[in-house]
Amino acid sequence: MIKKCIYCNLSEADGIKLSKSDIIPDALCNRSLINNRVCKIKHNSEFSNSFESIVIGAFDFLRNKLGLKNKDKKIPQYKAKVRINDKLFTKKINRKENFFKGVAVSVDNIEGKTLFGPIQDFKSNKKFNSQELEEYSLNSLNMIEEVDLNISIFFKSEMLRLAAKIGYEWYCKILDLNGVSEERKEIIDFILNKNGSEGIVEIVNNKVMYNMLTPQLNLGTHSLCKYDSIDGNSYIIYSFFGLIYYKIKITKHNKICEDANLIEFYGIRYDGSETKVRLYGNSDFLFSSVDPKIAYDEMLDDIVDRYDELLSTELVSIENFKRHFDEVKKNVEKYSGDELYDSLIGFKDRKKLLAIMILNKIGENKDSLDYNKTFYENTRNLFYSNEFVQIDEEELYDQLKELFDNEKLIQNIEAGYSCLESLK
Ligand SMILES: [Zn+2]
């Protein structure tokens, strides 16, 4: 069989080059899912410029928190607003502690720019007028990070086209479809933006479905499911990080549908691991949906709630924490005293606090670990939970501070880190 592009029906004999399309853009997902029947220039690069990059850019903060890297393999920067005591500053950062190095712009006062850094660097620099210096202690600093989540992005045409592209390319992949057929013209035109066909992408608004699937598929997961509706259409349900579920009309079918059927989701979690969920139900009921224009008001609060929950929950896996464990280890080797304190917990960087908490817990329990089992199996026992933990940053900070002051923390971290290497 000659491979043909699923958008334009051309093959390499026609002078185009077929390429491997990441069904879910790699900036949004830590595992690649490929459709290799998409032509390189027109229908791979062009999508990236016309809608993918806009969606990706709108989620820099979330991508940073979930560890989803840019093309250059770096963790993305995001525009942070940081309130320090009573002043509000803004700066592009990729981690909380970088806020305290260099210039940040003040948002709500006329002073403009403020230079941050360790106090001793300023004191030893003759160019600085000591009267312009303001000293803060990390310990007593009240630092609040504020994020603007622009909810409207979930309902914009760029997002709807991206959802349609993901749904369509996955559908073609699982059914091994080649080239273009007349029945799929409507969805193709929608993705290519030839016309804004109504009703191609809708938003699932059934709360029963969200309540049922969120605990199983977990927030932060991209998931996909194909189903044939009693209305004669085949749909793909695509969940964007579990925050919102899109229903994408792909083509017509002529099967006879039962009321209840097996519903199977394939998911990719943010650490790159795969997951599958199967349940029995009535798809047409569960995936009842509305036009994106109508969905906004109705779904706004729920999306914000799920987003908050996603940001306050962490997946305890090696993949998710590896670079943080390594960094903690480096800090312990490099610093001592106050510098060590600041680098480890002083900036109250959530993910780092958690990495330290995990290492501490493993170190504390080094004699009762089962070394024939994996990190995953051991941590599930240690935390008496599934692989997700929900934390309160301030509470965790206080616990770790106490351990640090009692000089137990460093020893546990070191023990914990060396256990990691011995676990299966
Ligand atoms: Zn093409």
Describe this entry's structure for a reader:
This protein has 424 residues and is of the alpha+beta class. It has three domains: 90-146, no CATH class; 151-313, no CATH class; 316-422, no CATH class. 40% of the residues lie in helices and 21% in strands. It is built from 14 helices and 16 strands. The strands form four sheets. A seven-stranded antiparallel sheet has the order 13-12-9-10-11-8-14, sandwiched between helices. Strand 12 and strand 13 (274-281) form a beta hairpin. Helix 4 packs across helix 5, helix 9 crosses helix 11 (350-364) and helix 11 (350-364) packs across helix 14 (409-422). It is globular. The relative contact order is 0.09. The structure holds zinc ion.
User: Count of helices?
Assistant: 14
What is the radius of gyration computed over CA atoms, rounded to a whole number of angstroms?
Answer: 25 Å
Structural class: alpha+beta
When the domains are counted, the total is 3
- Beta-strand percentage? 15-25%
Shape: globular
Tell me the series of helices and strands, N- to C-terminal.
EEHHEEEEHEHHEHEEEEEHEHEHHHHEHH
The residue ranges in which pLDDT falls below 50 over 5 or more consecutive positions are: none
Mean pLDDT: 90
Helix content: 40-55%
